[in-house]
Amino acid sequence: MQLSIPSTRARLSRERCRRARLARTFAACAAALASHSAPAAPWALQVRSSTGQPVSDAVVAVELNGEPRGAAPQTIAQMAQRQRQFQPFVLVIQTGTAVSFPNFDTVRHHVYSFSPTKTFDIKLYSGTPARPEVFDKPGVATLGCNIHDRMSAHIVVVDTPLFAKSDAAGWVRMDLPPGQHRLLYWHPRLGSLTLRSQPLRLGPDGATTELLLELAAD
Ligand SMILES: [Cu+2]
In terms of pTM, does the model score above 0.90? Predict the structure, then answer.
């Protein structure tokens, strides 16, 4: 078998190309690592009202530059109905999450949302609807039940896996890398279906942030 010169050249150039591809991948990888090479440090945020009271059930999310934003495929969350109430009252999910609406009551519910973030209507049903609803846009959806006017809840959809709800003392805690991030927040009593945002600059040693909210009366 004879190895012709052109085919040797072709093989060499393929090899060079492969190495160049690897080098580019490595460079991209190294750049990505450099931007997040500093270890995450504890970050705590307390949400309080303008009168100084701790605020629970506030949604807090942090977007890091260059991080993946949508939820992994098949991510599922649940908004249940028990004793003619939605549970939880506020559900936070990552964009792309599918939400199921199981009804654990003996009465039937008719769950809907007219919010632009996600419009849907699950007509009178018992048990668990066959198909979950996928929330593919960030924002806030307000839920209701056509049968029980007092039933109400919110689904808050964020473009980041870093999210939490404030606890009874108003605290949210996360480990975050240093950098220039974006803090997003929302509370039912802010009276808007849009999340608010502000820059969040963090150093390498962790930090505590205070967030004061002007809340409407209950
Ligand atoms: Cu109902």
Answer: no
